[in-house]
Amino acid sequence: MVQQDVEPAGGGTDRGLPAAWGGLSLEEARRARADLVERGRWGEADEMVRDAIEAILATPSGARGPQLAGLVYVPGSPAPDADECDRPDPGSLPEEQRLAIRAMQLANRGTDREETIATARRLLALPGGRGAGAFWCAIVALAICDELDLAMEHCVRAVRDPDVMSDGDARGVVALLMARLMWLGGDPAGSAKVLAGSLRRNVCEQVRGLAVAWLVAALVDLGESDRAHDLLLEHDFGGPLTGVQDRAALFLARGSLHFALSQFDRALEDFLDCGRELSAWGVTNPAVAPWRSRAAVCANALGRTDLARALVSKELAAARRWGNPRLIGMASHAAAVVAGADPEALRDAASALDGNLALGESLYAQYDLALALGTRERYGEARKTLEAVRDTARQAGYAVWVERAEAALTRMTTLDGAGGLTRQERKIGELARTGRSNRQIAEEQYLTVRTVEFHLSRVYRKLGIAGRRDLKAILTPLS
Fold this sequence. Notes:
By secondary structure, this protein is mostly helical. The chain has a domain at 415-471: Arc Repressor Mutant, subunit A (Orthogonal Bundle). It is built from 25 helices and no strands. The chain has helices spanning 26-38, 42-58, 82-86, 95-109, 113-124, 132-144, 148-159, 162-165, 168-184, 188-200, 205-221, 225-234, 247-260, 264-280, 291-301, 305-322, 325-338, 343-352, 359-375, 379-396, 399-410, 423-433, 438-445, 449-463, 468-471. Helix 4 (95-109) runs antiparallel to helix 5 (113-124). The longest helix is centred in the middle third of the chain and has 18 residues, at 305-322. The radius of gyration is 24 Å and the shape is globular. The two termini are 39 Å apart.
C-alpha cells in the first residue's frame, strides 16, 4: 500500500539532523532529504526542502542552478553533479535560475496556481537570452497550470529564433515541449509524430525516459498499445526502473498502458510507484501527475474500496486547492466511479472536462457515463452517449475510445440474443453488471461464491468479453 504523506514529527529529527531546516547548507539539505525519504518520512522531507531552498535562495551567495536539481522535482532534470555541488559559488544565483526554481517549487506544491503562472511569466519576460533549462522550467510550469496557449506561444517564438534553431540541444528541448503541449491540447497523433521523430534522432540521455513516457501516453490514446509496449521494452523500461531518470513519468505512462489493457493489478502497482516517487520529491500537486485518480479507479475495479476512497478523497481535495478545472473534473470522475458511478455525478464530471483542453479525459468520463446509464436501464441515453463518444473520438484521432465505444455498441444485446446464456447466467450477469460483488450475489441468490464465479466466467466467455467492466457496456438487460 502506498505510503501517504507523513506529518512532520515536530521539533527535530534523529541521526543528528538539524532541527532548523532553514539553517542547512545545500549538501546538508540534500543528505537530510535523502535520509528522510529512505525512512518514508516524505511529509517532513517536503517541509525541509521548502524551508532549506527558501533560505539558500535568500542568501547573497548561495547555490548554482544545477546544485538545486537534487531538491526540486523537474521532469527531465539532470541529476546533480557531486563535484559541482562541492565547489563554493562566488556569486549569487542568476535571476533566471532563481525564478525557474521558484516556478517549479510552486507548481510542485500545488497551493497557488496564479503565483505559479505569474512566476513563469516573469521568467519568460526576462531580457536577453535564457538557458534551455530555465525555458524548460517555465513551459513545464505553465503546462501544469493548463496555460497551454501561452506556453505554445513561447515555444513558437523560440522556434522562430535563429539562435535556438542553430543549437541542437535547445531545438530538441523546444520540440519535446511542443509535443507535450500538443498532447495536453487534444492532439495525440501530432504529439506522437514529433516524439517518435525526436527518439529516432537519439534524444540526449537526460530526457530519453521522459520522451518515451510522453510517447507511450500518446500511443495509448491512439489505440496503439502494442507499439507502446514494444517501445517500453526497446528502451529497457519494462521492469522496476531502478536507477532510471524520470521514473515518475514512466510509471504513470506504463500504468496508463496497463489500464488500457484492463490489467488493473499491474496498473495499480505502477500508479502507486509513481506516487511514491513524487512523494519522495515532496510533490503534492496532482496536476504534476494525477496518480491518485488513476490508482483509485484501479483499486475500485479490484475490490479494494477502502484504498480507492482514501486516494480519491485526497486527490479531489488537492485538485480543488489547485483550482484547475480539468484536474477537478478528472478527480470528480474518479470519485464518481468509486462512489458507485451515479450517472448525474459522472455527467457533472464530463461537463467539467468538456472541451479540447481535456478531450481524452472527457471521452473517458462520457464512456463511463454511458456504462452507468446502461446499468440503470436508461438504454437510449446510453446508446446516444456512446455514439457521441465514438464520433468525437474518431474526428479527434483518439482511436482507443473509438474502439471501446464501437465494441460497447456492438455488444448491445436483447433478451433473446444474450449470447446463449442460461436463465441463471443471465440473472447473475445482470446482478454483476449493477456493481454487486460476487459475495453479495452469492448471498442474494443463496449460492456459494465459487458457484457465482463459475457462472460469471461462462457469461464472459459466451459474450466474448474480458470482465465486469465490459459487462457493464452491454446496454440492454440480460434478464
